[in-house]
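Dear colleague,

Thank you for sharing your sequence with our group. We've completed the structure prediction you requested, and as agreed, I am returning the results in plain text so they can be pasted directly into your records. Please verify that the sequence below matches your submission; if there's any discrepancy, let me know and we will rerun it promptly.
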Amino acid sequence: MQKLRLDTWQSIAIVLSVLWAIGASLYTMNSFERDAKLMSERMYDDRGVHRSGTGEDCYHTMRQTHHVQMVLGRKQAAARAFLPIPLGWMAIWLVNRIVLWIRRGFQPAS
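Please find the predicted structure tokens below.
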């Protein structure tokens, strides 16, 4: 069985891809957590000021708003973490092919 060997650039790209996926997902989840907390607190305060429900009802609405925002945040974190990776790999491959094509054009004819 032949052993799979990666060159240095491929190894660097894999490490950067993993770091990007982890960092982008953590950043996005933290951002959505902060926004969900602010939005749910604002919802709770608005309902309390307008006295549009009991305290229990306001708290339930606040928790529900927070939950919905966090569900959206998880989906957004996955998209921000994983979608740029294949797009980046394709862009790098395309640039590599163009550079090789240009270099071949400047080689003397045999």
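Summary note from our side: The chain has a mean pLDDT of 84.

Kind regards,
the structure core
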